[in-house]
Please model this.
Amino acid sequence: MARKAILMVDSHTTKCTSCGKGAHIQDTHHTRLLPGWGTPDPNDRPCGELFVAISTLRLGITAEDLQDLRPDLPAYAAGDLPAELRGFAR
Model:
């Protein structure tokens, strides 16, 4: 069975919850790395998982804000992930 991931949005970065690496916000699957702070590891690779939702850990970002970023994904504010998705969040 294929794994799934949540696109996790922070103030300045977006990451994949499956592998914890940076992700491009517009991608449907984690197929490209978005470098964060510092020097990226040349051996890092994206995990390829399907994004099934968009969420955040930031209290100041609402589900409506996230829906504006990715209208094609279900959006959940901090602490609002449904039980069936909590296993996909790191």
Observations:
- The chain has a mean pLDDT of 87.
